[in-house]
Specification:
The complex is a heterodimer of chains A (about 110) and B (about 120). With about 110 residues, chain A is mostly beta strands. Chain A is about 0% helix and about 50% strand. Chain A has no helices and nine strands. In chain A, strands 1-9-8-3-4 form a five-stranded mixed sheet, with no helix packed on it. Chain B is about 0% helix and about 50% strand. The termini of chain B are far apart. Classes of the chains: A mainly beta (about 110), B mainly beta (about 120). The interface between A and B is medium-sized, with 25 and 29 residues.
Chain lengths: ~110, ~120
């Protein structure tokens, strides 16, 4: 059973900031929160990972509140090429990493 | 190798035949995962290996599915007596296991199975 819940879909326009929230109410102490991006006909690829507070890399930011029961992936200034499915995953090394259903992000011009 | 390699990339088979799907993980990665993705759906967890052992086989859909891993490297997913509902993309991912490592997965491109 997936540990995470996300919106099924989101729509945005180019240049906007997109925030995708994931719920993980039963997250374990040792679990990290990881986000993956998947394009059609490709395997998912890693975007960002965090344990608590805020993490930022060159493509995204990840916000995790103190209770860790949710997290928000923030994509700044999206482009058409950001149209993809985004998966939130709660888990860590040595565990069965079970994905949720993902969020389909559609970016329009 | 540079990344996770899966073969075949495409497989068309007839109902009732057996198929084998292969995964070559990134060198040195001790954890290996198999997922199944049906058309338009999310990733369904099948099985996970740590070394040659499978601590969690809970996702295997039926006893027609089995997987093994040898030498802590290559893994084979076998589907016996294939059914049309087995048609999907089978994805393999690997991950290093080191003290403090957080379990990021590196995925292959998948093996697309079509059962006629």
């Amino acid at each position: 059973l997936a540990k995470t819940t996300q919106p099924i879909s989101m729509d945005s326009y180019e240049g906007q900031e997109v925030n995708i929230t994931c719920s993980h109410n039963n997250i374990a102490t040792n679990d990290y929160i990881t986000w993956y991006q998947q394009f059609p006909s490709q395997g998912p690829r890693f975007i960002i990972q965090g344990y608590k507070t805020k993490v930022t890399n060159e493509v995204a930011s990840l916000f995790i509140p103190a209770d860790r029961k949710s997290s928000t992936l923030s994509l700044p200034r999206v482009s058409l090429s950001d149209t993809a499915v985004y998966y939130c995953l709660a888990g860590g090394a040595g565990t069965a990493l079970i994905f949720g259903k993902g969020t389909t992000l559609s970016v329009s011009s | 190798g540079a990344g996770v390699s899966q073969s075949p990339s495409n497989k068309v088979t007839e109902k009732g035949k057996d198929v084998e799907l292969r995964c070559d993980p990134i060198s040195g990665h001790t954890a290996l995962y198999w997922y199944r993705q049906s058309l338009g759906q999310g990733l369904e967890f099948l099985i996970y290996f740590q070394g040659n052992s499978a601590p969690d086989k809970s996702g295997l859909p039926s006893d027609r599915f089995s997987a093994e891993r040898t030498g802590g490297s290559v893994s084979t997913l076998t589907i016996q007596r294939t059914q049309q509902e087995d048609s999907a993309v089978y994805l393999c991912a690997s991950s290093p296991r080191m003290a403090g490592y957080t379990g990021e997965l590196f995925f292959g491109e998948g093996s697309r199975l079509t059962v006629l």
